[in-house]
Each structure stands twice: as structure tokens, then as C-alpha cells.
Task: structure prediction
Amino acid sequence: MSKTKLVANWETLQRIFIRPEDDTSQAALLKYMEQILFGLQDFLKENVGITEEAGLKELSDRFRNFHIKADPARRLAEVIRGIIEDIAPRAVNVASPYFIGHMTSAIPYFMVHLQTIMAALNQNPVKLETSKVVSIYERQVLAKVHRMIFSKPDDFYEEYIQHPDSTLGNFVEDGTLANLTGLWVARNTALNACDGFDGVEQQGMAQAFKAHGIERCVVLVSQLAHYSLRKAGGILGIGNQNILPIEVDSSSRMDNKKLLSAVKSISLPGSKTKILAIVGIAGTTETGTVDDLPRIADICAENRIHFHVDAAWGGPTLLSEKHRYLLRGVERADSVTIDGHKQFYMPMGCGMIYFKDPFLMDKVAYHAAYINRPGSVDLGRKSLVGSRAATSLILGSALDIMGSGGYALLIDHGIETARAFADEIGKRPLFELVTAPQLNILTYRIVPESIRDKWERADTDEKKELTSLLNRINIRVQRLQRQSGKSFVSRTTLKRCWREDIVVLRAVIMNPMTDMSIINEILDEQEEIYRQLAEHAI
Amino acid sequence: MSKTKLVANWETLQRIFIRPEDDTSQAALLKYMEQILFGLQDFLKENVGITEEAGLKELSDRFRNFHIKADPARRLAEVIRGIIEDIAPRAVNVASPYFIGHMTSAIPYFMVHLQTIMAALNQNPVKLETSKVVSIYERQVLAKVHRMIFSKPDDFYEEYIQHPDSTLGNFVEDGTLANLTGLWVARNTALNACDGFDGVEQQGMAQAFKAHGIERCVVLVSQLAHYSLRKAGGILGIGNQNILPIEVDSSSRMDNKKLLSAVKSISLPGSKTKILAIVGIAGTTETGTVDDLPRIADICAENRIHFHVDAAWGGPTLLSEKHRYLLRGVERADSVTIDGHKQFYMPMGCGMIYFKDPFLMDKVAYHAAYINRPGSVDLGRKSLVGSRAATSLILGSALDIMGSGGYALLIDHGIETARAFADEIGKRPLFELVTAPQLNILTYRIVPESIRDKWERADTDEKKELTSLLNRINIRVQRLQRQSGKSFVSRTTLKRCWREDIVVLRAVIMNPMTDMSIINEILDEQEEIYRQLAEHAI
Result:
């Protein structure tokens, strides 16, 4: 802490708004950047740090200051040191190759530079008057990713890439908002204007039901769909109970037969229920599985239903020549969600939604007198959000630096390592593979041989008890490993139609530094934790 | 361009994920940061750059590449140079003190450092397992701003600052999403569960109307409300036609009498219409005016209606001892929107919503099996968005560095300069002040003396024609000034009940470098543009 009292005055205030031109001040600013870039080294090298050592209670006790002080409390240098010395060691090292529990991972270091340049330019693509070329650049990036998904012919992109009335997609904060946008557009398309009715956007859901002669509308999704789809149902006035989960088959894909029979039973003649959309998942959050997109596309086409694909996770798989076949059928979707901060390895804050039809977003256009005037080319006219960062600068630059080839290496590594991981599970008697990796996510659990034996001879009630015992074992092992702080595998509960809810360990392989030797260490640790538990009788 | 062909291979790929430890590589990374920090100097010093010199058409023609190349196209160094040399000069210099047209402005340089450290840590506060201390830190920042707004007693904050079941507020991408969140919660509170009905979130709007015995629900807002409120009405299934604009009085505030009579006529006994919320604005986008918040609070209290305040712009005025009185009554709101990227001078991407009642967000809680389990302390349980950046690190640090005193200097400068601006308008015969600044925004227009004279003697039809002529003049002058590229004042169209729609010039004073000498230059330029137009007969 500096000894001189810090005071806010006009002179220092002006100084922080003018970038210094003298060498000393420039050197100081650069020194801070050096601390940020390399001072975090230790944080980024050590353990994953979800240790409970410094417990939540203890941490909570340290952050209880609710006063904004009148005078400055700290200088930038002290703030940076504070974050490096005090915050970072108690944050989670998502960049560790031992952190294989969630969809947040290491990012290439150049992403930090790109985020910095975006902040320094401080453009706001909601309107041309605060972004200009950046809005135009954004359209180019959107077209590149649109083409990655939909593979439309060149003349399509030549026509629409800079066509101000068309909207190939949107940048939003995350996949939740992208899914919300997709269903928003689907809702407005299904409940559009008709005789004497201006449209659901204008008059609301209750009036829309009257005008369209229905009493309910629903969205069909896999039971493994992300919870953001239920949330979107709640927000959009559809009701989250009307986001109907369809059971999955033995490979964790939405069961086609059950989907078709649901569609048929809902669409019976005289039905008062309308299906707004069917959602296929390309990489479910919990198991990384990909629904049978071509079949869902058929069903949607036959029944004229909006086809949304949640490819928040799996989308960039399309950059791999080797594995893009896994997403076959995505090009038939009406709308597709992809997250930049997942497998495009970008910093947080880059959800995206894409539309096959460049005019579908006309259904959600808004104007204002000071911007987004009708006829303007402002990107904010058709978008869930208003002001936002120029995230396209990061994605566009990253595509230049990596090439699809660079991304393909990451994708291929993840998928191949996950398969090797699954093989290793098969070799270890303590473990059972629950969902095999279709992309780079797998789930498994600990099933001790003693319980395996009992299972064979157990009746229904006994099986229930054994499942409950297995669940307790897996919860404890996962927690103890997390607390020991060296590595992190997450856990979830899978609802399986053919047996009880089971607790599984969930691994997400996206860090290129996560190799089989690390995975074996993680499995060894889990075995060791289990052995110690067993010795002390669970 | 480097001559060697760039190839994506495993070796280079690994290199970009490991922060280099040797001096040469570290020096290279730091050099890039130096370019970003100081290479943008020229961009940040020269004109505002909304010049049409490089027209949109020409720019659009340059960004028509829709192919993602397989091999890397450019190295990081080339990408940075490209942004500095090619993008930045064609972006908008929102940091110029001559850019007084929108709510985007210069930010203190330390904000760039803070954004960089946030990116380097890459935490995701949706869940504790990807953020840990950062989630706890965020709760502290939320409490500080909550206290700035609601001034609850200390024991309130001592109880709730780290209480895992309470939610004092949310970080979202922008004010649009904050307003959406506010109305989402208001809708769910008004249309909550009742006998045989699970709630609007669960069962949707049409069922909610039946259960609550209503046929319509509405939100009352000033006619000057931001268009995001209409959009929220559309998204939430209320219908944007049911976001009812209340006319403003002569000081551009929502007319209290008209508001009260609207409330009364809607709430007549036996009415089938429910008022979900009344929205007061603390700093309208177009005129910066503040509604009569205490009176609206009274009306809401008397009629038990949710009171939302959109303080996206005006919120930080509360940090100024001198001017906080302008927002009196905001502490009585149920929910309040504030944007960090506006008058907290943060980089883009920091909308916020605050709730007086720390349990009101229970109405929008969602759970999932792998995170946000019931009983967890994950911040993502009650939030419109899911994954997001740890923006609280920037705001919390900025509050430390600036103190409320530092922010007060900025706020006071803006308001006082806007008043001086208005005085100057009064002194110049060519101009007419249309809306006086209550905060730091004012609108005015060019009204040549010849037209002023004619106006005095004109009948209704002639006045209509004169207004239309004035509008054309102001549109042309604003465009020509924008095109000349030296300075930027925006324009909007105000709908006035007592006369025709009028086009006005709109100035937003938030850059501390914008002083009266610059404002006089801008006005001189407008006069000169008008004179030249007049000479050539408009």
C-alpha cells in the first residue's frame, strides 16, 4: 500500500483518459501488462485449485465490504498485484490440463491480446455510428461461420455477405441467449400475423393463441437438452413445462420413434396444440452426444416445423475434415447455436446464433428514432441484445491465425483422446463406461467388483439400493478428488429410462495438453481415493 | 506478409497454449501488447472518423471473403498490425472529445488492463467450479452498487452480501437484457402460482391469463422509454403493443396526471387488464431526462405494481454528492437497470440489474443436474444468461481505483458542461434549445431567423410545412458534419404532443476532455455548414 493518501482530483482524472506519450509513463503501463501476462504464470501452472482448503465460508468472510469509498482505495499497480496475489490463487485454474470437468479450458495466449485490442478500440456494433468498419467486418465473420454450418453455394454468400437487409446471424453473450433467440424467431414465425392479428411479438401469447385457434404450444427436445431451452420456454411465455423432453435411446440420442410418435399425437386432426420447434443437440452438455440430425430434419420438413440445432458445444467439429461427418444434417437446420468461448477457444462472452434463411430475423426487427431507423444498416435492428462488444474481431482474427486446420487439430485431439480414455476405462475393473464419447465428452462411474457381483443376483428392490450405494460412492470420490485440488472431473446425474437415476463422472477433453498420461494419473487418483474410502468402510 | 507458408501443426499448436518462459518469446508477446496500447495512439488522437470518405459501399466491397482457410492466413503480429493499420482507421473514434453523439465514449486506459486480466483468468461465474473466489468477489461488487442505489441499512448488507440464497443483482451483457430481466421477474411476480396453476414461467402466458382471470397485461412507460422495453414486451409474450407509452410533459418527463389516469382507467373494477409494471426512466436515451420517480413510486405503492427504473444511463449519478438528488426516488424501485459500459466508463459488455428484495429472483430460478443443483451457491441459478465473463473484476477494481469521488468528477463535469452548452445555445441566434439538460444530455436544433419570423404568423398548415423544412435542414447539417469527420453530434426525432414530430440534434457529454472550447468549435462548424447550405439555397 502506498503511504500517500490517494485523492480523486481533476488532474489525475484527466491523466487516466490520455494515453501517455512520455517514455516513463508508457513503460509503466507496459510493465503492468507484463505482470498480467506473466505474473499469472504460477496460477496457470499449479493445481486446478477447486480445493476446499480455503473454504467457501472463509473466502466469503473476506469479501464483505459493501462501501464504495469516496477516495481511491488503490492504484492500478496495487489492483493488479491484488488480483495476481489474492484473487488468482483462489480462482479456478481452468487452463490446467488436469481440469477436465467443464466446457471451460485453456485458451491460446493470443486470445488475450485480441481481447485487449477489442477493449482498446471500444467499438459498439449495435449501430454503424459507433463501429463503422467493425460492423462490416462482423458481417464477414458471420458469413464464414454460416458457410461452415450451412455450406450454401458461393452466390448465396456473394449476395448476402454485405446485404444490409439480410441477417446471417448474431453475436450474443452466450449459448443461452443464442437458444433464446432461436426459439424467439421460431415462436414468431409459427404465431405470425394473420387475418386481424398483428403477430405474437406485437399482441402477445394469449392473443396469438386466440388468433391461431390453439390452446398450447410446445417445443420438443431431447431429455439431455441444456436447461437454457427450458428457460427460453419460460421467458418466451410458452411455459417451461411445454418444453417437452423426449427420452433418449441407448446411445443417449433423442429416440426417433418416440419423437415421431410425439409429433403425431400432438398433430392429430383438430389438435389445439402447436409444435413451435424441434431441437436437435450437437453435443449435449452432459454426454456430448449428437442427436440424429438427418432424421429430425426429415420429421421437421414433413411437418413444417422449425428445426433448431443447439451446437453450442459441437459446432466447431465442422472444421475437422475427419470428424465433421458427426454433425451431418446440421446444414438442414433453420437455426443453429454455437458458442465461441467453447470450442473456438475464445474468451468468455461469445454466443452465436445462425439462420439458414437470411430474412428469418425480420420477425424480430425493432427500430428507434435515434438509431436502427428503418432503412439503416445498423446491426442492432435485429438482435436480442443492444450494446455489445466487437467480439467478431476476436473470432475473425482467431480464424486467420489458426486456420480450420489448427482448429481441426484441437477437435481431433479431443475426440481421439476421449476414445482412448474410454478404452482405458474398459481396461480398469473398478470403472464402468456409461456413455461412450461421440465427440470429446464421456461419462463413467466407479462400480466395485463386489457390487457388480451382487447386481447379477439382485431383485428390483436390491438393485435400487445398490444404485443408491453406487451413487453415494461416486459423489464422495468426485468430491474428495475435487477437494484434493490436483485435478477436476465433474459429475452429473443421468436419468435413464431403463434404470434408476445414476450419478456419473463426466470428463470433457478440450485442453490439447490433456493426454493419456494425465488421464491415467486422474484415474489412478480416483482408484486410490476409492480404496481409502473402502478401507474405512463407506 | 511472411514469406514462409503458415501451417497448422501440433508443435505450433502446443506452443500457443503454453505461456513462454524464455525471455525472447516473452519479449515478443510484450511487444505485441505495446503495439496494442500505443499503436492505436494515432487512431485515438485524430478525428472521430465517421467520415463517409471511405464510403460504406467501398468498405463493404473489401470484406467479402466467406472462406475459412485451412492453413493459418496470418500470424498474431500481422493480425495486430492489420487491425491497427486497416481496421482502426476505419472504425469510429468514440474516444474523441469531439464525439458527443452517443453514449459510448473514452474509457480510462486502466480499463484495458482490467479487461486483459479478466481475459487471462478466463473465469466463468455461472458456477463456482469455474470461478470460485470470483463468484464471491462478484457478490461483494453487487452489494456495493446495490447500496449505492437502495441505501439499505448496514445489517441488510451484512446479512445478504454473501448469503447464498439471496440475489442482489445480476451482470448481463447490456441494458436491454437488464430491462428484460426486470420485466421477466415483474411478469412472474404478477402472474404467479395460484390455485391449480403453477405460475406463468411454468405454464405460459395463455394459461396464466386464464388462471388469473385476465385478458391482457400491460406495462406503462414514458413515451421516451428505450426501445428495449418494447422488445422485452415482445419477447416475454406480453406483446410489444402492450408496452403502453405515456405522454411526457413539457420537461420531457412522463406526465404524472396521464400516468395516474391510465392506471385508474385500466384498474377499474372488473377490469380484465393487469398492469405488470410501471417503468420510470433515470436518463432517457434521447433527452437524458429523469422521470418523477417519487411520484411514480407512490402510484406503484398505492396500486401494488412492480416499479422498475431504467437507470442504464443515469445510475452512476448517484456517486455524485452534488447531483445525486436528481435521482431521488430510485431507492423505492423494485428493480433497477444500470449499464457499466456507460457512466461507469467500462468496456462494452456490462449491463446490470438490481433488485431491492434479495429473494425476488427466486421467481426465475433454474436448476440442472451438472451445475446449479438446488442448494448450490452457483450464481447461474438465477440469471437470464448462463456462461459469461467475470465483469465484476473490472467494475470492482474500477471502483477501487476511482473512488466515488473520481466518478463524481466525471458526472459533475458532464452535467455542468451540458448546462453551459445549453446557455451557449441560448446565446446563438441560429439555434433553439429543445430539451434542457437534466443530466448531461441535451437536444437542440437549427432554427434560422427567417423561419422563426414566419412561424409567428403561420397557420396550422404553414407550421406543418415549416416544421418539415426545419427537419430537412437539421438532418442535412447533421449528416454533413458527420461526413466531414471532425466531430459527431447525433440526431433523433422527438414526438411532441403539442406540435409535429421534430428532428433535433442530440449531444451527450461524458468525455472529460469535452470542454466548452470544443463545444464552441462544434457549434461554429454547424453554423458554417448551415450558412453554406443557405447560400446554395436548400
